[in-house]
Amino acid sequence: MTISNPLRDPADRRLPRIAGPSGLVIFGVTGDLSRKKLMPAIYDLANRGLLPPGFSLVGFARREWEDEDFAREVHDAVKEHARTPFREEVWQQLAKGMRFVQGDFGDDEAFDTLRKTIEELDQAQGTGGNFAFYLSVPPKFFPTVVQQLKKHGLTDPPKGSWRRAVIEKPFGHDLESAQELNRIVHEVFPRDEVFRIDHYLGKETVQNILALRFANQMFEPIWNRSYVDHVQITMAEDIGIGGRAGYYDGIGSARDVIQNHLLQLMALTAIEEPASFHPKALVAEKLKVLSAVKLPGDLGKHTVRGQYAGGWQGGEEVPGYLDEDGIDPSSKTDTYAAIKLEINNRRWAGVPFYLRTGKRLGRRVTEIAVVFQRAPYLPFDSYATEELGQNALVIRVQPDEGVTVRFGSKVPGTALEVRDVTMDFAYGESFTESSPEAYERLILDVLLGDANLFPRHQEVEQSWRILDPIEKYWDSHGKPAQYPAGTWGPDEADEMLARDGRSWRRP
Ligand code: BG6
C-alpha cells in the first residue's frame, strides 16, 4: 500500500501523486452527489494529469441508459461543476473509458455484466484489474451491493491487483447499525481496502489543522487546559434541505454532520502529536480523543436541537422545514443542533468543546475557534478594557479559508484604551497554488491506496457512542425549538452558553 504523509518533506511533495492503472465503479451514479461532486472531481483529476491514461469510469444504476447517455450525463456535470477549464482532448481521453451498466442492486444479470465490463476495460483500457467500488447509495443498500459484488467474483482481484470499497456517509444511524454495517462490509473487503468518506477530511483547511499545530512551536504550549477557556466548532449553512427530504427527514443535523464532520474536526483539534502521519498512528491518536469524550450529565441543559421556521433569507421568503416538499408535517427532525462535550484527559479536562451546526442559518461558515482564558490580571483602568474580549485563534475552514488570531491592542490616541484586533492569514493571499476540491483529493487517495484521510470503523463507532445518548434523549423529550430561517438558531442555544457564562461567536 502507498502511504503518503500530508506533511512530508517538501522535496518529495513536488513529485505529483499520480494514480496507477485503475478504474472506478459508481453505484448511485444518477444521484446528486455523483453529478455535483464525483464526476467533476474525476474530470479535474484527469485535467491535472493525475489519472492514468486508460482510467475507466463505470456507472451502475436502474436508469435505462446506454454508454453514450451516461457519457453525456458526465459531460454535462463536468461542464457545470468542474473547477478546471474544459479541454476537449482531456474529455475525449476520459470518455473512452466510460461504460454504463443498467440494473437493480438485486439483479444477478447486471452484476455479471459488470464483471464482463471490467474484464473488457482491463483489455481495452489497461486498467490492470484495479477497481474501486464507490457506494454512493443509502446505507440500506450496502449489504445487497457488497454481497452481490462478492457473489459475482468482483471482490477477488486478479493476482497483483486490488479491489476497494468506498463508502459514503451516513455509516449507519446509531452504534448498533454501524457495527452491523461494518461486519457486512468486512466480511467481503479486507479492512485496508475499505475507504469511508468524510469529505471534510479532504478539505485543505482541515488538513492544515495538523500543520498549524505540529509544524509550529508557538501554538502547542498554550493548546491545553491551562490557557484555553473553551473551543467552539461551528458548521453553519444558509441553505435548507433542498431536494433531500428523503435522506434528511428522520436523520437530522446531528447524525448528518456532527457524528462525522464535526467530531473529526474536534478530534484533530484535540489530538496529541502522532508519532508519524502513517494512517495507523493518526487514527490511534484520534481514537484516544474520541474515546475520552464525556457527555454532560444533564443533556437537557447542555444540548439543544432546533428546526427552521419560515423566514427571509437573502431578500427571499423561504419555507419552514415542515413546509418543505416531502417532509412529514409532524416531523421532529433537527435541522439545528448544539452540544457541549468534554474530553477527559490531562490536556483538556474541564475545557468545554461546543459543537453546533444548522441549516438556514445566517450564513455559510465552518470554523474552529479556540478561545483563550482572559489574562489573569489587567493593569489598566477598568474603562480601558471594557471592549476587550478573549484572545482567540480561529481556523476558518470555509469559505474565506485561513486563520485569524484575535488579541487586544492599544487604541490610537492619548488615552490607554485596549480593543480587540485581528491578524489574518488568507490562503488566497499567501499561496498561489490552488487547493484541490475535497472529493478530488479523496478519490485520488483511494486510487493510490492512501488511507490517511479516511476514518476507520473504530472512529465511526466511537462517534456513534457519543451521539446515541443525545439522540435518545431528544427522541423522548418533546420537539425541537423553532428558529426563523436566516437567524443563528434557537434562543435556547444562546441560553445554553449563557448558563456557562459564555456566548456563541457570530462569524
Ligand atoms: C454533507 C451533508 O455531508 O455536507 C450535507 O450531508 C451538507 O447536509 C454538506 O450540506 C456540506 O458540505 P460542504 O462541503 O458544503 O460544507
Automatic annotation (TrEMBL):
Coiled coil: none annotated. This is Glucose-6-phosphate 1-dehydrogenase. GO terms for molecular function: glucose-6-phosphate dehydrogenase activity. Catalyzes the oxidation of glucose 6-phosphate to 6-phosphogluconolactone. Substrate binds at residues 199, 203, 237, 256, 359. It comes from Kitasatospora paranensis. Residues 210-505 form the Glucose-6-phosphate dehydrogenase C-terminal domain. Residues 481-507 are annotated as: Disordered.
